[in-house]
Design a protein that fits this description.
about 270 residues, mainly beta, Elongation Factor Tu (Ef-tu), domain 3, Rossmann fold, 7-stranded mixed β-sheet, 6-stranded antiparallel β-barrel, 15 strands, about 15% helix
Length: about 270
């Protein structure tokens, strides 16, 4: 983990769904490790001190290019910072910290993996799929992906490097099955033991945890929490884990964001304000 800012230039920056954008960062010189699936960056969205704090974004893709690299994020417009990002032209100089945090462990070979994504919880799971595909193991992966409406879904059918089995659902039934991503889980019969990977809104992950914990080989969740620094100094992203949660706080940015499901409780998925 490094706390030094990396300089990059914006590449392609385009809208892919309702309020959902894809941004490529072109990094002239990459000296750090290859990001693990599930790690994130803290991106500075302002030129000065407004906004003062960086914003955390899960890494959706990473490609080494000679001495440099290309890094991709997906972001949803939810406030002033992300709204400003939609206007970034190609070639704009930006800075970020990362890769940060702990990522998803790669499952054992010739095993089944079930990935469950809700909303903008999709990016770290896309990174995991791309890693599995690089190992020639995409046939071992199934992705369940849910959103509120079809307009908010990323169209996975056009992603040429994401050739995996997937199912989608929407709350209004406008695409895929009508219902929540947890309904896909309930309706899906798992004939083989599987490794579970989850990222999305806290209420969704809490529901998945209640449905699946104890019924899979292993489980890992990428937790959501508001972050200020991204590397553990402020402790503003602390959440409860363990059997005695009142005495066991961990920092999502450092000890996480990925945690094994067997250490998480209902308190771990508490909504932050």
């Amino acid at each position: 983990m490094t706390t030094a800012l990396t300089q990059a230039m914006t590449g392609a920056n385009w809208q892919v769904a309702e309020q959902l954008w894809r941004l490529r960062l072109e990094i002239p010189r990459w000296v750090g490790p290859v990001p693990e699936p599930g790690q994130f960056i803290m991106l500075r969205v302002g030129d000065g001190d407004d906004p003062l704090l960086g914003r955390p974004f899960g890494i959706a893709g990473f490609w080494e290019l000679g001495q440099g690299a290309s890094l991709e994020i997906l972001y949803r417009v939810v406030g002033r910072g992300t709204q400003a990002m939609t206007g970034w032209p190609a070639g704009r100089v930006v800075r970020f910290l990362g890769p940060l945090g702990n990522g998803f462990p790669i499952p054992p070979e010739k095993s089944r993996s079930l990935l469950v994504a809700g909303g903008v919880g999709l990016p770290p799971l896309l990174a995991l799929i791309r890693t599995m595909r690089a190992f020639g193991r995409e046939s071992e992966v199934t992705l369940l992906y849910g959103e509120a409406t079809a307009d908010r879904l990323l169209d996975l059918s056009i992603e040429q490097d994401l050739d995996v089995d997937y199912q989608t659902c929407t709350e209004d039934g406008s695409c895929g099955m009508k219902g929540l991503v947890t309904d896909l889980l309930v309706n899906r019969k798992q004939s083989d033991p599987y490794h579970l990977y989850v990222c999305g809104p806290n209420p969704m992950m809490k529901a998945v945890h209640g449905l699946c914990e104890g019924g899979c080989l292993t489980s890992h969740y990428s937790l959501e929490s508001r972050m200020a620094c991204g590397f553990g100094v402020c402790s503003g992203c602390a959440v409860n884990v363990g059997s005695e949660p009142e005495n066991n706080y961990v920092r999502v940015c450092c000890e996480g964001p990925v945690f094994p499901g067997n250490v998480l409780t209902e308190e771990s998925f508490r909504e932050t304000v």
